[in-house]
């Protein structure tokens, strides 16, 4: 049975006993386990049906805990920590000996993030250990931005859900590889390229080269997809399809859509999109038309997720 609670202290007790707990953050809900408890970490992969070559992000409640995860905070990583933490930002660093390989999918690096979300911080402090947590959805499905979405995917498969509000940002954290001289953005998020370049001007977006071993294994897996077919459309285009359909975007649209969500900004669009995907699936909608947005600010991360969902 999955316990649902609003108490971060009660939720943390499950982590201490080797359980797995879903908890809110400012990006999406995560599914956590004690990073140093191999058995508990294994339960995460099982509950989510996550491929075991996809590494997890370790979440800390205090800056001191970062030293439990890595012996080498590189100079650029230190600059990002000073400038942004706590934030929707994950830094990939060389992992320390103590971190079990199951958490990092056999990589010698670990993603480290300190969430800003108040309830998440309280929960992590009660856990008294870094907590590895992927998004708390079944693998391949859209990340959960509400506790109800976690419940839909994982009820009965996990020990506890720490109940919070809908997440503020709605897209996952920016992931930046800080292991080499030039920081590389592996996944875009609310902390943007422009933000990072203000701190380290050399920062780049990682482009997968042909035949290269992919740096972020998660990038190769199917992601963020509703059951419905996702179709990206430009602001001008008209939609003609006999299928049952929905629309999300920034402008008004004409046509017989079963569900329409007009957002007033790219931020609101990012905040709404995953929940909208899930609602459409619940209604059995066949096609979801998503308006494309400018790839700047949060629009970069939003377009990344939309493109993956449409693949
Ligand atoms: O906002 C977030 O990041 C949320 C919340 C819960 O913190 N977590 C999240 O985790 O989105 P997940 O597991 O769904 O996505 C983690 C991504 C994956 O694409 C994974 O491959 C990449 O980060 N990643 C994790 N550790 C890595 C590492 N050591 N090297 C390269 N990529 C890594
Ligand atoms: Mg995920």
Question: What do these coordinates show?
Answer:
With about 300 residues, the protein is an alpha/beta fold. It folds into two domains: about 5-205, Alpha-Beta Complex (DHBP synthase), CATH 3.90.870; about 230-310, Threonylcarbamoyl-AMP synthase, C-terminal domain (Rossmann fold, 3-Layer(aba) Sandwich). About 30% of the residues lie in helices and about 20% in strands. The chain has helices at about 10-15, 40-50, 65-70, 75-85, 120-125, 145-155, 195-200, 265-280, 300-310, and strands spanning about 5, 20-25, 30-35, 55-60, 90-95, 110-115, 130, 160, 175, 185, 205, 230-235, 245-250, 260, 285-290. The strands form two sheets. An eleven-stranded mixed beta sheet has the order 1-8-2-3-7-4-6-5-9-10-11, sandwiched between helices. β2 (about 20-25) and β3 (about 30-35) form a beta hairpin. The protein is globular and about 55 Å long. The model has no long low-confidence stretch (mean pLDDT about 95). Threonylcarbamoyladenylate binds near residues 30 and 217.
Task: Please tag this protein with its features.
19% strand, binds threonylcarbamoyladenylate, 311 residues, eleven-stranded mixed β-sheet, alpha/beta, Rossmann fold, DHBP synthase, globular, binds magnesium ion, 9 helices
Short summary:
This protein is α/β, with parallel strands linked by helices. It has nine helices and 15 strands. It folds into two domains: 3-205, DHBP synthase (Alpha-Beta Complex), CATH 3.90.870.10; 229-309, Threonylcarbamoyl-AMP synthase, C-terminal domain (Rossmann fold, 3-Layer(aba) Sandwich).
């Amino acid at each position: 049975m999955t316990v649902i609670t609003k108490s971060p202290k009660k939720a943390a007790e499950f982590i201490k006993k080797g359980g797995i707990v879903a908890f809110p953050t400012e990006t999406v809900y995560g599914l956590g386990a004690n990073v140093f408890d191999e058995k508990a970490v294994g339960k995460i992969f099982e509950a989510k049906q996550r491929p075991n070559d996809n590494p997890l992000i370790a979440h800390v409640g205090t800056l001191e805990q970062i030293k439990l995860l890595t012996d080498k905070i590189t100079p650029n990583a230190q600059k990002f920590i000073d400038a942004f933490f706590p934030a929707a930002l994950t830094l990939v660093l060389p992992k320390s000996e103590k971190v079990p390989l199951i958490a990092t999918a056999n990589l010698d690096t670990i993603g480290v993030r300190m969430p800003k979300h108040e309830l998440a911080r309280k929960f992590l402090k009660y856990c008294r250990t870094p907590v590895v947590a992927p998004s708390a959805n079944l693998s391949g499905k859209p990340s959960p931005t509400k506790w109800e979405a976690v419940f839909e995917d994982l009820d009965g498969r996990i020990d506890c859900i720490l109940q919070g509000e809908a997440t503020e940002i709605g897209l996952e954290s920016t992931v930046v590889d800080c292991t080499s001289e030039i920081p590389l953005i592996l996944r875009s998020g609310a902390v943007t390229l422009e933000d990072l370049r203000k701190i380290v001007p050399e920062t780049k977006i990682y482009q997968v080269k042909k035949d290269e071993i992919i740096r972020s294994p998660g990038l190769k897996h199917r992601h963020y997809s509703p059951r419905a077919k996702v179709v990206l459309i430009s602001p001008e285009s008209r939609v003609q399809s006999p299928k049952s359909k929905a629309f999300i975007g920034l402008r008004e649209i004409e046509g017989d859509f079963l569900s329409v969500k007009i957002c007033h900004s790219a931020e609101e669009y990012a905040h709404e999109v995953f929940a909208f995907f899930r609602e459409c699936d619940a209604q059995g909608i066949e096609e979801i038309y998503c308006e494309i947005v400018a790839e700047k600010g949060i629009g970069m991360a939003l377009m990344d997720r939309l493109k993956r969902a449409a693949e």
